[in-house]
Specification:
This protein is of the alpha/beta class. Helices cover 42% and strands 17% of the residues. It has 20 helices and 24 strands. Helix 15 runs antiparallel to helix 17 and helix 17 runs antiparallel to helix 18.
Length: 658
């Protein structure tokens, strides 16, 4: 946590590196937006900041996915990583470094750490006997399985018996427990700290950190029969990001991290036990704080995750919000950022709903912040010829409130309490709106009290300036638009946290009013629209299965169908939809198709993998039960599917069906 003597210290903040088996969803975005807000805030404080994120690109799951698509693993990860970087840019994520575990300097660092720990005796060769979950890339004990499946992703696990290297996590168990107990800020929130201590029990078991040789993973140095376990590889990214071990000057500037952010599912087993034990073995300082936030869940209480087919992709949500509200896409992105960080205490689980998002947009952004700007600028335009006045006698009435809120925000940001920080900022929004109502500049104008009028409008404009700075870590594009409308962009005014004080607004600048940043939403109409779209999507599942049921079609009409062979790579049930399966199908294109099919009652998802089916590839995409479907597979049966239409010989994905 930040204290008074932290000023000027470097601020190294990290997200986990994300596995490249899918595009970013709300969960990934939540972590990264939180990290971005902290990084932007500390830059405002004037501290040297290094905000790192990246992608985890090794593991059997990647190799198998690439093979199924006829690609080399490197080709697959290059394609997906580009999409991740594009998504972070769209979400206004301003990271400093983006690491890929396929980067040569990272590979060298991982092998250096492995070799050093093996030489010190902290890594030894043994035999692993147990279970392994390929989707989660996790070793599991028999006692950890749930119904024979992985406790996290609920999918099948593989039994493994093979030679493997182990890291002596057990040797650092007592020392780590002592560190956790002596440093309550090391693991936050407190509930997660208690979970870690409970997990440690009477001690930690040694961790398996290698597998039999695979072509795609980092090889164990000096042993071509083994490859390094993907989680050991991934954790080392926090070191390789800052020059370890080759550039010790840079390493000394940034290490240890002030804050490592992650979802709660990867805290206990990896970040809070294996990772600090590795650092202790290397004789390196531990991160100051590991903060594990909660999950975003559906209205039905299910965790959002790709395997369940219920994830929300943030940029799609933002574009829908822009379409509903009439706001710009940049404003809609920032509004989503605001909602995610304001809606729930960082660390707890949260439920996403469109009604909640739209209500925040109207109440907090349109009615409060937007209304303050929209009321004030026309008064300056009308009474002061669009020029910011001199402070003059009587100005500064909001100074005490600005100082109070600034101190509150500093306190909450030091505790990583984004929601509480935003609540404090909105207290200043409310104070400024109340001040405008109470001082009534329109009345002062009627009474020809020009000096007092100018002082009141100066104070409100000055407060809006402060608010723009305060919200900038959370909503950078919205801050920039407020800055522009105040005329501060044209004037070349800088932003810093020290400027969150009264009477710092330069006078004589011409304001540049624009259209309202946050157009109000008719929530009832918007919800009706969203519901109607959902209902149409539900109906489209049946419509897709009954496509072209006319008695006859012309050869020209039939030729319009794009029928191809597709290989089913994944099959998952859709929560809350008994008849629907979500399929990932390779149709020979640059990326796989997601297809929703009404066959869940007749076909077991596990039995569908690697089947070559016939796909209608040129159907217009439709959203079915909240999941986008990008095609249709052909089945036999008039009322209910009885069999799938499959190729009787092996054909590569994408083969045209005539």
């Amino acid at each position: 946590m930040r204290s008074a003597d932290d000023s000027g210290r470097s601020f190294y903040i990290t997200t986990p590196i994300y596995y490249v088996n899918d595009l970013p969803h709300i969960g990934h975005s939540y972590t990264t937006i939180g990290a971005d807000a902290q990084a932007r805030y500390h830059r405002l404080l004037g501290e040297p900041v290094l905000f790192s994120t990246g992608t985890d690109e090794h593991g059997q799951k990647i190799a198998r996915s690439a093979e199924a698509r006829g690609l080399k693993p490197q080709e697959l990860v290059d394609e997906v990583v580009e999409a991740w970087q594009r998504m972070w840019k769209r979400l206004h994520i301003d990271y400093d470094r983006f690491i890929r575990t396929t980067d040569s300097h990272h590979v060298a660092t991982v092998q250096y750490v492995f070799r050093r720990l093996r030489e010190s005796g902290d890594i030894y060769l043994g035999e692993y006997q147990g279970w392994y979950c390929i989707p989660c890339e996790t070793h599991l004990l028999e006692s950890e399985l749930v119904g024979g499946d992985c406790p996290e992703c609920k999918r099948e696990v593989e039994q493994v018996t093979e030679p493997a290297y182990f890291f002596r996590t057990s040797a650092y168990s007592d020392r780590l427990r002592e560190h956790i107990e002596r440093h309550p800020e090391f693991i936050l929130p407190e509930s997660r700290r208690n979970e870690v201590l409970s997990f440690m029990g009477e001690g930690l078991r040694d961790a398996c950190i290698s597998r039999g040789h695979t072509e795609w993973d980092i090889p164990v140095p000096d042993d071509d029969t083994q490859s390094i376990y993907v989680w050991f590889d991934a954790l080392i990214n926090y070191l390789s990001q800052v020059g370890y071990p080759d550039d010790l000057d840079e390493f000394g500037q940034w290490w240890p991290p002030r804050l490592e952010l992650m979802g709660k599912d990867i805290l206990t087993r990896f970040h809070a036990t294996l990772w600090p034990a590795i650092l202790m073995a290397l004789d390196l300082p531990l991160p100051e704080t590991l903060f594990a936030h909660g999950w975003w869940i559906t209205a039905q209480g299910d965790r959002m995750r790709k395997s369940k087919g219920n994830v929300l992709h943030p940029y799609e949500v933002a574009r829908e919000l822009a379409d509903i509200s009439g706001a710009t896409t940049a404003v809609a992105v920032d509004s989503l950022r605001y909602f995610l960080l304001r809606e729930v205490t960082f660390g707890l689980d949260a439920s996403f709903s469109w009604r909640g998002l739209l209500s925040r947009f109207n109440a907090d952004l349109a009615n409060d912040l937007g209304n303050l700007l929209n009321r004030t600028l026309p008064l300056v335009e009308r009474y002061l010829e669009k020029k910011i006045p001199e402070p003059g006698p009587g100005a500064g009435e909001l100074a005490a409130e600005i100082d109070r809120v600034r101190a509150l925000v500093e306190q909450e940001m030091a505790e990583y309490s984004f929601s509480a920080a935003l609540v404090a900022i909105w207290e200043l929004v409310a104070s400024a709106n109340k001040f405008l109502d109470t001082r009534a500049p329109w009345t002062l104008h009627k009474e020809a009290k020009q000096v007092e009028l100018e002082a009141v409008l100066y104070d409100v404009l000055d407060c809006v300036r402060v608010l723009a700075i305060m919200v900038s870590p959370f909503m950078p594009a919205i801050c920039d638009e407020i800055w522009r409308q105040l005329g501060l962009e044209s004037a070349g005014a800088e932003k810093s946290w020290d400027d969150c004080r009264a009477l710092q607004l330069p006078s004589g600048i011409a304001i540049e009013p624009g259209r309202p940043i946050f157009p109000r939403v008719d929530i009832r109409r918007a919800m009706d629209r969203l519901q109607a779209r959902s209902e149409r999507a539900e109906q489209s599942a049946a419509e897709q299965q009954a496509v072209a049921r006319a008695d006859t079609v012309t050869i020209e009409q039939f030729a319009q169908l794009d029928l191809r062979v597709g290989t089913i790579l994944e099959a998952h049930r859709i929560p809350g939809a008994d008849k629907l399966l979500r399929l990932i199908v390779d149709v020979g294109e640059s990326e796989s198709r997601q297809i929703v099919a009404g066959i869940a009652k007749q076909f077991n998802p596990r039995e569908m993998l690697n089947i070559n089916v016939v796909v209608v590839a040129n159907l217009e995409p439709a959203t079915i039960h909240g999941v986008e479907s990008q095609g249709m597979i052909l089945a036999v049966g008039a009322e209910e599917p009885e069999a799938l239409v499959v190729a009787d010989r092996l054909c590569p994905p994408g083969t045209v069906v005539r």
